[in-house]
């Protein structure tokens, strides 16, 4: 085993180790993770929230026991593979050992550490962006048409994971047209690769068609509730922060693909970067959507710097570039991860506020970063719902109906009573089991929505009571209330079916 391989293995071990220690055990999973895990129980070619690839990993996690270890393992694995592809790209570009170490450090000590703690499509999305760019470099280097087919497969899997990769395509097309690489358009293999990619994503496109393109409704809802609060200046600022330790290396990479003679045939990567970033800015995308754009430029920059820092006084800068990502990681470790108790973070909220970390998607500042608050209170909610469910007669005739997918998913993940909670929110809209004639209702309501629940719902049941609420004051779902309604006077199923149809009509009409 040579020195390079040993160092690479060391980076891989360090990456996995860091992912294990960056989340305090005081935190639960994050709300989106519960939804994605529940998709394993409802496999399909598409969902209202995401394409199907995440559900495939969720099914694998389910087969492995559905433990938190495996939930955290897969995003960490995707992060390791991203690092590995950057390493292989540096080797392809004929980078030396210094370039390999510099590139690996810039990828390791970056925002990917935070991204790879969450079981969401984002980690695999970044991996697919990086892999696609690597495949493109392979093709430009060798002109072997097998890489076109590989590129079609990588893009298809990226698309089936998260539609965000369409931005890569939109930015790359004009860059290719403006470069000498436009000769690729004259190759029949290019079109065969396009057809291959299209065939792979066709089942999902058919699912979208069959379900009246819910992605349109999802994007409209996203634009109205979240993207409307996106500030373009903040978007640009966050781009700098994502890879702050590797920023100089990325800038060096952009310079290199434009002016460094050995990289002349890769000039399209400069235009691709500019076009893609401008498209993100134009559409007021969330800042993290663009993370996948950067790792490949770390590879270019690391190779370029390893060459120009070889002679004269510049060689003394080599250790400086190695130290920069390490030094920037120290403050990042202190503030960017849920590795401290909520009490500590609230007590030191000023430093988080200065970093803009307390600003939520609603455009307001709160007590904790949104993702951190979204990792609290879920076990408590599930435990209390289980306790109330156990007290009811004919438990199988009880439906647990929640306000949002986080509540439903968390209850289903942690339940010891076999509860299958549902919601009119997100994918749960399609997961109601109306073959059971329900008699009892456990209703979980957000605090902001619960003031009218007892008054509006209790007349339809023989008995009604508030069974409990989430008491963790730092949770995003603080004071979410659990109502228990027994012995319905009406046909619950008929009412549920009516509301399901109303919600689906909204999606179709939008």
TrEMBL record:
Q: Which UniProt keywords apply?
A: Cell membrane, Glycosyltransferase, Membrane, Transferase, Transmembrane, Transmembrane helix
- What is the topology of this protein in the membrane according to its UniProt annotation? Multi-pass membrane protein
As for subcellular location, the record says: Cell membrane
Transmembrane stretches in the record are 43-62, 69-90, 96-115, 122-141, 147-178, 190-209, 240-259, 266-283, 289-309, 316-333
Q: In its keyword annotation, does this UniProt entry include Oxidoreductase?
A: no
Q: Name one GO cellular component term.
A: plasma membrane
For this UniProt entry, what is the primary localization, expressed as one broad class?
Answer: membrane
InterPro entries from the xrefs?
LipidA_mod_glycosyltrf_83 (IPR050297), RgtA/B/C-like (IPR038731)
Q: Which GO terms describe its biological process?
A: lipopolysaccharide biosynthetic process
Q: Locate the Glycosyltransferase RgtA/B/C/D-like domain: which residues?
A: 50-207
One MF term in the entry's GO annotations: pentosyltransferase activity
- Which protein, by its recorded name, is this? Glycosyl transferase family protein
